């Protein structure tokens, strides 16, 4: 049995800090010495190894002490990345949607080149484009990220349906318009508008309903951060002294800008005098940043 | 009845035991562990993790320092060295124990 291998196994869950590497080296030399001394007493190598490991006890408490801080950082780093929330199945589905979309675009272009009719590429997109984009929407909504929880797949399906019908209706609207205008028939817009009734209107209604009843899917840490930010803003601008000072500075700034503008218009003309306002906007932003940063 | 060693009681004194072993020479982990085993006739079920924890604690408190030995062959060994603060702690703990011991003996005495 290899002690190095065993020790590496014990600490595989921990980030290799300098302190941990140091400790592992110490552990290994002591463990090897102990195994050696047990073998001198007549134990076999396997038995000596097993006994030495048994004597070691539970190492995880100690490893936590040595490596905890680093592990915390690793934890945060890991969970902030979207790739952490990607399963192979989801990746495959994203790629599949991309392929369908790509195929749709290429097929639409080809059909346009060969037919010359605007409606044939639109018809291709009607099928493949709608399918692929709806797929992306569904995947996006049910995707858990560092900041958001995933939407339930049932609700996401409603959204997807509304979106797909809307897109379908949009393309049908354009196609109908072109179909009737291609022939020399004078009626074209009314038919196109009529297609809005079965597709666009219901999907908009459904979409509006869904958006209005939407719940906040932010993760607890995002909510906490948002509240903290709001609280800080409140403290900063609810303070009357601070607010007064901010008002005075801004007032002075814009009066100065106006004066500069008038003066410059008279002396060098309107061509350059407007720069006074541009400068004032920059100064305003700087003042705002200054007030927002320092707590005074 | 055979007397048994109370490992729990000993464990409470791990730091003082380590300091006692380091009083005269610097030693490394295996030596310290071995010394304890020999002196207790291998009756003390001491886990090495307990020792490592106390090294860390003692080092943090400035009672011991550590350094890597310059072994010419084989693995490097980490030695521990007792500081003056460590010696003071050892003396205090030893006094405390002697005092506690007399009181405990008295408390455990059979009523006559």
Topology overview:
The complex is a heterodimer of chains A (296) and B (112).
Chain A: H1 3-10, H2 18-40, H3 45-56, H4 60-80, H5 88-115, H6 119-141, H7 153-182, H8 189-194, H9 200-212, H10 220-238, H11 240-267, H12 270-273, H13 275-293
Chain B: H1 7-11, H2 14-22, E1 27-28, H3 29-39, H4 48-60, E2 64-68, E3 78-82, H5 84-108
The proportion of residues forming helix of chain A, as a percent range, comes to over 70%
Number of H/I helices of chain B: 5
As a percent range, the share of strand residues of chain A is: under 5%
Looking at CATH, which topology of chain B would you report? Arc Repressor Mutant, subunit A
Main interface: chain pair and counts:
A-B, 21 and 18 residues
| Residue windows where pLDDT falls under 50 for at least 5 positions of chain A | none
Order of helices and strands of chain A: HHHHHHHHHHHHH
* Uncertain segments of chain B: none
What's the CATH class of chain B, please? Mainly Alpha
Quick rundown:
The complex is a heterodimer of chains A (296) and B (112). With 296 residues, chain A is an all-alpha fold. Chain A has 13 helices and no strands.
Give a description of the structure.
The complex is a heterodimer of chains A (296) and B (112). Chain A has 296 residues and is mainly α. Chain A folds into 3 domains: 3-80, no CATH class; 83-217, no CATH class; 221-293, no CATH class. In chain A, 79% of the residues lie in helices and 0% in strands. Chain A is flat and about 100 Å long. The mean pLDDT of chain B is 90. Chain B has a 3-stranded antiparallel sheet with strand order 1-3-2. Chain B has helices at 7-11, 14-22, 29-39, 48-60, 84-108, and strands at 27-28, 64-68, 78-82. With 112 residues, chain B is mainly alpha-helical.
Question: Could you name the key traits of this structure?
Answer:
heterodimer, A: 296 residues, mainly alpha, 13 helices, B: 112 residues, Arc Repressor Mutant, subunit A, 3-stranded antiparallel β-sheet, 5 helices, 11% strand
